[in-house]
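protien #1 (seq + structre)
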Amino acid sequence: MLWIHPVLQLLCTLLGLYVLGLGVQRLRASHLKHKVLFNWKRHVLWGKVVLVVWFVAFVWGAGMVRFLWGSSDLTGTHFVVGLVMLPLLVTGYATGHVLDAVKKRRTVLPLVHALNNVLLLGLALTQIWTGIGVIKLFLIP
């Protein structure tokens, strides 16, 4: 049961890289004035999936650690970085929702959304590194 968390998070982080690639097209079109196709619907769909799965898998991982070993913070840095990610997940989802629901020309909110989510992706990549340590320590005897 504990393997659900790392597998979901790894796959979701790879999907996050894809969503970032889609978002770069938006940046190129809006701020660099390049003529490129930005697949808005795909970016929104997969972006929501990434943010929601990251959140659910965080809850799952912390919950399983607490259930099985009595404390969610046994994984140290891995747990702390996950906690740091939580408000960024909410911010990424909220800004993305506003951008999708109220479509109009903007410059600041898309940049806030992008910077927030690039930071999230960087933290998720850090989680892969710290997660490998957790797997070695707790899951592989």
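ok now protien #2
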Amino acid sequence: MTRIGIYGGTFSPPHNGHLMAAKAFMEQMWLDLLYVIPAALPPHKEMEAPISAEHRLAMCRTAFGGLEGVYVSDMEIRRGGKSYTVDTLRELSGEDRRLFLLCGTDMMLTLDEWRAPEEIFKLSYPVYIRRENDRFLDDMIVKKIATYREKYGKVVRWIVTEPLELSSHQVRKMLTDGEDISHLVPPAVKKYIADNHLYV
């Protein structure tokens, strides 16, 4: 049984928090392969200062290219339209595969509001990673996980790591403000952004 991780998102731009999450996901879920999949159009949020899918895909390949076992896929971009997770799971599922779906806390708490949540839980094992230190969310997380277990028969697992409170929005704002992002993104991503005059 091949253990495959799925890490989707806008990745505009990919930053060190994304890389940290990917590494922790691979290590703690014992993944054989990790798909990093930039969305064509994320269904859950409006994209501010939209950057083309081609640029986001290129930045992901630049950012994640050096990680063994990671494959940056353009499947959602090729599919076009809104990128629904259930469609990606259908495409990647197979009898010899076990799929693990990585979510941030906010996405994990709303999984039952996504398209076809029953099928998402049937096709994958959701896993979440905390990117915040908000203790007020602790009880909400515990209750939601219990609800999912009762409703869908799956336990949502937790990637144990120190939260890195960093977002793509923060990186974009710093770029717009002319601030240095060297400590927030891989050097090759910073160079790509500068060479292509993105987020200015």
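The first helix runs from residue 16 to 28.
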